[in-house]
Amino acid sequence: MYRLINLLLALALLPLTLQANDGYKLWLQYYPIENAEDWMTDVFTDAKVNGSGETISIIKNELELASEGFFNKKTSFTESGSKLWIALKSELPANLASRSTEDLGEEGYHIFNANGQVIVTANTQFGLLYGTFRLLQQIQLLEPISEHGIVEIPKIQKRVLNHWDNLNRTVERGYSGFSIWNWHRLPRHIDQQYLDYARANASVGINGTAITNVNANALVLTPYYLEKAQALANAFRPYGIKVYLTARFSSPMEIGGLKTADPLDPEVQQWWKDKAKEIYDYIPDFGGFLVKADSEGQPGPHNYGRTQAEGANVLADAVKPFGGIVMWRAFVYSEHTPDDRHKQAYNEFVPIDGKFRDNVIVQVKNGAIDFQPREPFHPLFGAMPETPLMMEFQITQEYLGHDTHLAFLAPMYEEVLKEDTYVNGEGSEVAKVIDGSLHDYSMTAMAGVANIGTDRNWTGHHFHQANWYAYGKLAWNPYERSERIALDWIKLTFTSDPDFVNPVKEMMLRSHEMVVNYMTPLGIHHIMARSHHYGPGPWVTGGERADWTSTYYHNASEKGMGFDRTRARSNALEQYAPELQEKWGNLETVPEKFLLWFHHLPWDHQMKSGNILWDEMALHYQKGVDEARQNVKTWKKLENHVDRYRYEHVLSFLKIQAEEAQWWRDAVLLYFGQFSNRPLPEGVESPEHDLEYYMNINHKFVPGI
Ligand code: GCV
Questions:
Q1: For labeling, which of 122, 286, 320, 430 is most exposed (least CB within 10 Å)?
Q2: Ligand 1 centroid to residue 532 C-alpha, Å
Q3: Rounded to the nearest whole angstrom, what is the distance from the C-alpha of residue 165 to the centroid of ligand 1?
Q4: Strands 47-49 and 208-210, how do they pair?
Q5: Which tens digit of pLDDT belongs to each residue from 331-361?
């Protein structure tokens, strides 16, 4: 009977849900559940949450939201909690506490079933919050809780979003509107969106946020802005989220009135100490500093002939008494260094391994160039056993078509995390560097450059919410599988109907490879348009920096194309373990996905398929276009499974993507065709226009610069 009522209810709500859903609720839709098992409804009928305070209120509120969404019923909080009991381990009676044998640490949780009573337990309220989100996810996914239950302990300590948000609310490489931080209205107005942001992060285990751009403005460290940052920190704290700020290295001069920012100058050291104390007076649990130094015009220790360690340590000493850390970026390279850009960070950081204070962690991008659609892992991973290294992934799609191109990034993240560095023999995967197990790091962290903005659905493309979600899941557990992440996200965000879930999952899982195919297959890289990186630009050459051009990377001529990183030229390969030098340096064994990353090859180079390089390349571009077109068709067939608003929005973006995939294919093949001097192989469509046409496309005011 109960089920029947639910079914009728769900049917009654159906037209409503199919009509308007702007996506604001992300993966926390809590849509009506049919076919719920009894325990799933029961937990809301007799629930008890121990304790008090803001985090506990958030937990209770979440239960209420879910109960109303799933079953259109209020949650009954009772004294007994005979169906659901959420309590710290220390509050449970011995017979229940003893069921939870693992050390859950500060953030882990255990959910189990004790004779019909669901228990969510943890050592802290934040653990309880994570456990509650998981319980609700389990219910929406219609998945059981076994007797032993679910034990989850994060494998990475600091799981941080990096916002490249400027104080004027523009977002560098942001494609989803403006910054959600309304600095002008802060600190007096706390927008509901800040709380919704914190809630969404907590629901996937993100516990830190660096709220300002790494291309930093020193003003954020002045009282005027610290008061505003404090207001955000206060809003985020109950959700277990710490605030970090980006520190401009020249701040002692710009806002402190000193004549130098030399890290070895005692006055500079004192300035940072005083500044740290001031920040902690505003934000007692301030996470620490994130720093981009000596890169792309940012000031840094190089200005004073100092090392990156000397630079990082002055900030580290300042925050150390308060428990703060410094995330010091390894994205250091210079147009004045006459070496392959690929090699520069490694050359700079490996000699100073072990020279950093113990509260510094070096933040390394997944690859050595710059968030390309595909890169081999950064050679620093595995090369600094004495210095904790953290991963920096880019969630926003600077080089992946911006917000209109569907690219589910979990497979890309997973690919990098699974790569074997071989530094301690076979099985030394990047994930083991990041989770600290390979080198016994004392601190572990992961950063994701956020794709969030003021767009109503947060991320521009509805499907790019999945990248925020996936980042959180992989930061919690870098061994999580993309397929699992995709499945859960689709079901939480849309529906569990297999007729929708299966084709969408396939579409998502193939999407990154599809984008690689129509943008940069076979190891081609950095051939996007100049500066804004929107659309193809293989012809980009000249200008202020060679390492910001395309020709620097593809080296195309009548003889062939590719970047020779073998011993014959830059020898970047030497920075990897001997096993990889051997494998990637050898044309027989290098994976073709990295071919032109490491080798310069003639157009008639024989590929494994039997095709010559030129033909193979052209076929990859065509494949990408075909898939992008197919996605439009696939989505159209799903019209009846998704609400009108999201259906139309996604459809429109998929159409743009299909058109732009073609733009990429035509422009790139026409450009390289000048050198290959060969016809397009059978199966590859002829370009619509000539090369000049594509070279003259000039998009104005592309967002994100
Ligand atoms: C924040 C790339 C981007 C820059 C970005 C930089 C970085 O070069 O194009 O916008 O600056 O990476 O990661 O610091």
A1: 320
A2: 11
A3: 12
A4: unpaired
A5: 999 999 989 999 999 999 999 999 999 999 9
